[in-house]
Specification:
The chain is an alpha+beta fold. Helix content is 49%, strand content 15%. The chain has helices at 4-16, 26-36, 41-53, 66-71, 96-103, and strands at 57-58, 76-81, 84-89, 93-94. A two-stranded antiparallel sheet has the order 1-4. It has a two-stranded antiparallel ribbon with strand order 2-3. Helix 1 (4-16) packs antiparallel against helix 2 and helix 1 packs across helix 5.
């Protein structure tokens, strides 16, 4: 389980890349963020999933089917991170809740 400090490092890493996701390899960027927080791939994937589910991160414009992903790759990226398949939109960003967490 990630510590509060690791959560903040990950939130900050995501925030620093806002507006740039379309130019990045999202898998490599999330791996870099996780490594910087001292998390392995599985821990980072689980934390990222939790941050989205807990409304700290808006994963961006997400589409529902794999066929739609194939048709709309310019706006979304499917990544296999730590054994979990994550779908993020290139406009991924922190929510107000995520920003407030960084200000604590």
């Amino acid at each position: 389980m990630a510590t509060d400090e690791q959560r903040k490092v990950v939130l900050k890493g995501i925030q620093e890349r806002e507006g740039q996701w379309q130019d990045l390899d999202a898998n490599a960027a999330l791996e870099e963020i996780g490594t910087g927080a001292g998390l392995d791939d599985a821990e980072m994937a689980e934390l990222f999933k939790n941050l989205v589910e807990e409304n700290y991160v808006d994963s961006g414009r997400v589409i529902q089917s794999i066929e739609a992903v194939e048709a709309d790759k310019r706006n979304n990226e499917v990544i296999n991170h730590g054994g979990l398949f994550l779908l993020i939109g290139y406009n991924m960003k922190l929510t107000d809740k995520g920003r407030a967490e960084l200000d604590k």
